[in-house]
Every structure is written in structure tokens, then in C-alpha cells.
Amino acid sequence: MSTSLQRLILTFKPEELIVHALYRTDEGPNPGTKARRREVSGLAREGLREALSALEGDVAMVGTSGFTTREDIMLANRKESAA
Questions:
Q1: Alpha-carbon separation of residue 28 from 4, 33, 40, 48 (angstroms)
Q2: Which secondary-structure segment (H or E) carries 80?
Q3: Strands annotated E in the chain
Q4: Among 4, 8, 35, 77, which one is most buried in terms of CB atoms within 10 A?
Q5: pTM for this structure?
């Protein structure tokens, strides 16, 4: 089985955290299985760990907008994993 995380979007609300995970897999559709929930949860956890690690290094501001409600886009290089 090959699975590749493409994008994570986090939306913070007062009572919940919504995680949108976009990923590619070579498995067929199975929207309601426990295995799929475990798979996407694992991908999200690993993606968040990689993001936190990358944010420890140099971060470049590559886009900004807004005045009182702001949206900033940051670019952080991912550290090369040990082979």
C-alpha cells in the first residue's frame, strides 16, 4: 500500500478542530472503515510533526493579506530525513 500526504488544512473553532487531509493512495474507495480513519489520523499526525520540525528552522513570509483579520502564508523547508 502506498499513501502520500499532499495537504493538511487546520480550522480552529471554539469547540472543535477541523482537519482537512488530502492524500493519495493506491487503495480503492472505503469511506466508512476504521482502517481508513486510522490511516488518515496517522498521516495527519506525521504531517503535523514534520510541520512543527520545519517551523523550528528558518521561515520565510511568502504572502500576507488583511488588516485586523490577517492571513499570512509561511514557507519552511522540510529537514531531510536520515537515510
A1: 15, 12, 14, 25
A2: none
A3: 3-13, 16-25, 59-65, 71-76
A4: 8
A5: 0.76
CA dist 72 and 62 (Å) reads: 8
Break the chain into its structural domains and give their ranges. 3-57
How many H helices and E strands in the chain?
Answer: 1, 4
Residue in this structure with the C-alpha cell 499570512, named with its chain if needed: 72
* Cα three-residue angle 45-56-6, rounded to 5 degrees: 40
Q: pLDDT tens digits, residue range 18-66?
A: 999 999 988 777 777 888 888 899 999 999 999 999 999 999 999 999 8
